[in-house]
Amino acid sequence: MSGKDEFSIFNVSTDHIPEGERVPLLREFYCRGVLKAEVEAREAKPAARFTSHVLPEAQLLLGGLCGARVIRTKQLVADGDDSLALIVNRSGVLGISERGHDLRLRAGEAALTSAEDVTTFERLALGSGFSLRVPRRVLAPMIVDVDDAVMRIIPENAIGLRLLVDYAIALLREKTLEVPAMRQLGVAHLHELLALVLGATDHAREATGRRGLKAARLQKAKFLIVNNCWQQDISVANVAHELGVTPRYLQRLFEADGKTFSSFLTEQRLKRAHRMLREPDFAERPVSSIAYDVGFGDLSYFNRCFRRAYGATPTDVRSGGVL
User: Fold this and answer.
1) Euclidean distance between CA atoms 22 and 39, whole angstroms
2) Is 66 exposed, middle or buried (0-12, 13-18, 19+ CB in 10 A)?
3) Are strands 58-66 and 47-55 parallel, antiparallel or unpaired?
C-alpha cells in the first residue's frame, strides 16, 4: 500500500489444486495480494477463485471463497497495516466479525472494515464479493467520521454504492488500470466514490460531484453502450434512464470527454463489424447482414462510416487486403 507507482495482478483458483495444498495456497495469496491473514478450512474441500489488483494507494479484490475462514489475527494486526476496506457482498451471505460486531451481509450489502482490528470473514452461503482497500491516511480526511463508518451495514441502495462497484469492475474488465497514464486518475475516482458511499465531508462531496461521480457515470455509460451497441433501439434516452440522469446531462459527459454519444455508439458498432469481418465464423455472412447485426439500419450509411473509420471498404477488410 505504498505511494509508489506499482501495479500487480494476483490470481488464485483452487479448481485443480489437491485438497491438502489449498489452504497454504490461499494463505500465500492473502499475504501477497490482499493483506496478511490466516486461512482455516471449515470444510474438507475449501474452494476459491480470486483476482487481486494491487495499485498505488488502492487494492481491488474480486471473487469468492467458500468452506474456509479468513482471519486477521491479533498477531498479524501488529504488522502496522492500517488500511480500510469496503467489502461488498455481490451474492450469497457473508459473515464479518470485528470490534464486537457480527454482521451478515446479504446480496448487495456492504461494510467497511479495518486492518487494525482482529477480523474474521466467513462465507455463510455460496457467493462472490468485491472489495476496495485503501490506506487510512487517504480516506480519513475525506470522511466525516471514518471510525464511526467501520462495521456498519451499508444497504444496497446507498448513495454511490452501485456506481462505485460498476465503475471499479469496468476498470478491471477494460484493463484501464494497466495503463500507467490512467492508473492515478482511476484510483483517485475510486477514492472519491468510496468517500461518497461512506459519508464524505462537504468538501470531498463537492469534489466527488465534479470528478469521481461524473467519471463513474461516463464509464458506466460506455460499458452499457459497448455491451449493447448491436441493439438498434439503444439511445441516449434509455442509457440515461439506466444511469438515473437526464439525456442532456449524459450528452454533456460525452462532450466533456471529446466525443458525442452518437459518435461513441457508432464507433463501437464499427469495431464490432470490423471484428466480425475478420473472423472465419462470419465468412459466409453477407456484409449487409453484419451491418444489421451490429446495429446499423442503413447499409449505405454503414459503408460510409466504415470507410471513414478504416480507410477501406468492408469487403477489403474481409479479403485480408487491409487490417
Assistant:
1) 10
2) buried
3) antiparallel
Residue 322 confidence (pLDDT): 56
Q: What is 115-182 written as a DSSP string?
A: TTS-EEEEEEES--EEEEEE-HHHHGGGBS-HHHHBT-PBPTTSTTHHHHHHHHHHHHHTTGGGSHHH
pLDDT at 3 over 80: no
Residue 56 corresponds to which amino acid?
A: P
* Distance (Å, whole) CA 47 – CA 64: 8
Contact present, 110 and 86 (Cβ < 8 Å): yes
- Whether pTM > 0.85 for this model: the answer is no
pLDDT tens sequence across 257-299: 888 999 999 999 998 899 889 888 888 899 999 999 999 999 9
Which DSSP category does 280 fall into? G
Sign of the CA dihedral running 242, 246, 247, 253: negative
Find out whether 293 and 299 touch, Cβ atoms under 8 Å. no
Q: What is the structure's pLDDT at 2? A: 39
Q: What is the pLDDT of residues 55-72, one digit of tens each?
A: 989 999 999 988 889 999
Model confidence at 203: pLDDT above 70: no
Contact by Cβ (8 Å): 46, 66 = yes
CA–CA distance, 30 with 70 (Å, rounded to integer) = 9
